[in-house]
Amino acid sequence: MAPTVPPPRRPFESASAGAESTPLEGVLHWYENALGWPTVPGDPVRLVVGVRFDVLDVPAEAGYAALCRLTPAGCAFPVAVQGDRMRLLVAAGGAEELPGLLEWLEWGDVRLDLVGMGAGCLMEAPAPMPAPARGRARSRGAAVWLRPPEPGCEGTASLPTLPAMGGRAGALDLTRVVSAVATQCHRVRLRRGCAQPAVVPAL
């Protein structure tokens, strides 16, 4: 039987911001006060990338397959889904390390649908999922958490980093995450390429 991604953790309680808060105020309160993540107010709220975390943006199909191969450690760090894209949160500085890691892993010359988002980037703040949600996150345009961050451990130890950067002992490192994601991105690219009709060159 194929491995599956464990069910999502229980999302944050919007009531923590106070009973009189609006939904947007509750979201801002949770990200800024409970997690310490800088935000850009608006509708939707956006998260500032490159301060507390960086992001690996990949096709959702590749991301789910990579997480299955990284389980159980693969579910220790926050992961969000928006439409057909998955965003894996890694330690700040990870996006800058991505090109060198891909080169070292011998993916440097391969075109992969794998984007590193670092300093200067913004990410839509995922909405909380209902507590009974199970399995894959359902996203119809809005960002949602597949694996929500947990206050107190989301900013450092739980985010994949290079071993030399002082990650928690036994934690999943950035090299393993990038290797798994790059492999699945390549497989998705090959599979989609084979499914496309052959193009007949004009004579």
Structure description:
The protein is α+β, with helices and mostly antiparallel strands and 203 residues long. It is 28% helix and 15% strand. The chain has four helices and eight strands, in the order H-E-E-E-H-E-E-H-E-E-E-H. The strands form two sheets. The chain has a five-stranded antiparallel beta sheet with strand order 6-3-5-4-8. Strand 1 and strand 2 (46-48) form a beta hairpin. Helix 2 (60-70) packs across helix 4 and helix 3 (94-104) crosses helix 4 (174-195). It is globular. The N and C termini lie far apart (49 Å). Mean pLDDT is 80; it is low at 8-19, 130-135 and 198-203.
List keywords for this structure.
single chain; about 200 residues; alpha+beta; 3-stranded antiparallel β-sheet; 4 helices; about 30% helix; globular; disordered C terminus; SCO3374-like
